[in-house]
């Protein structure tokens, strides 16, 4: 893992140089993926790396874990609380659609959660513009393959350094980087609603997805669940769909 860390650090430095930007910024949730990225970008560019904590009706434990990461890595940080902005925008939208009698209560939890993720993305890009930084994503191989991220939310980034690493490999990277043990062992959660965990929402464990991605045998139901998620979320990993170039055809 030490070699992987060195290669990732070098890649991050080279990418900043190639893009003629000044540094790197990451949204810090207190989970293992964003923590590993925070440690990596701090190693890559000690004086041009920034972490952003963006609570939005979040659990206090997440903020405490994020502070542990800041103390452990020494990365610079800023906190932008999005709770008030989220509530104002979400309630405005809900009120306008509700006035048409078309508000879908069944979709409310998902719409609320995705708006949080997209407000965080907008916040990161506003900060990145200020410093001329690149936004670094935190999706690992399991999340990338299954599409377990919000399109134009946590999926809206410039770099994705962890997409070739399974969840278990990200934990190993964390150990090698000196990440606090309680964060390595923390149950994965996007923190999008109270009590939410990734594995319960996906219906399959990260260990199973990791085994599947490594070509190991998993039971048929789990394999089917993983493949269905992959197929259903293909649009998240692709550029926006466009029609054929009709200019190539003669108009009559």
Please, could you describe this protein's structure?
With 252 residues, the chain is an alpha/beta fold. Helices cover 52% and strands 7% of the residues. The chain is built from eleven helices and four strands, in the order H-E-H-E-H-E-H-H-E-H-H-H-H-H-H. A four-stranded parallel beta sheet has the order 3-2-1-4, sandwiched between helices. Strand 1, helix 2 and strand 2 form a beta-alpha-beta unit. Helix 1 crosses helix 2 (32-44), helix 2 (32-44) runs parallel beside helix 3 and helix 2 packs across helix 7 (167-177). The longest helix has 24 residues, at 108-131. The mean pLDDT is 93.
Structure summarized in a few sentences:
The protein is α/β, with parallel strands linked by helices and 252 residues long. Helices cover 52% and strands 7% of the residues.
């Amino acid at each position: 893992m030490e070699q992987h860390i060195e290669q990732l650090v070098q890649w991050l430095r080279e990418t900043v140089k190639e893009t003629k930007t000044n540094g790197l910024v990451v949204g810090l949730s207190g989970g293992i993926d964003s923590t590993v990225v925070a440690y990596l970008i701090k190693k890559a560019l000690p004086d041009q790396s920034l972490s952003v904590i963006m609570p939005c009706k979040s659990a206090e434990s997440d903020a405490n874990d994020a502070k542990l990461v800041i103390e452990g890595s020494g990365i610079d940080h800023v906190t932008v609380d999005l709770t008030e902005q989220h509530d104002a925008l979400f309630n405005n939208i809900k009120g306008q659609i509700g006035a048409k009698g078309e508000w879908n209560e069944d979709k409310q939890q998902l719409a609320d959660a995705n708006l949080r993720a997209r407000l965080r993305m907008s916040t990161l890009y506003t900060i990145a513009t200020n410093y001329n930084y690149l936004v670094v994503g935190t999706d690992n191989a399991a999340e990338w393959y299954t599409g377990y991220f919000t399109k134009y939310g946590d999926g809206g980034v410039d770099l994705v350094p962890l997409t070739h690493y399974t969840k278990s490999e990200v934990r190993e990277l964390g150990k090698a980087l000196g990440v606090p043990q309680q964060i390595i062992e923390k149950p994965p959660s996007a923190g999008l609603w109270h009590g939410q965990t990734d594995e319960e929402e996906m219906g399959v464990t990260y260990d199973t997805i990791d085994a599947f991605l490594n070509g190991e045998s998993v039971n048929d139901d789990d394999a089917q669940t993983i493949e269905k998620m992959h197929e259903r979320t293909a649009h998240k990993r692709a550029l926006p769909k466009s029609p054929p170039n009709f200019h190539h055809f003669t108009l009559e």
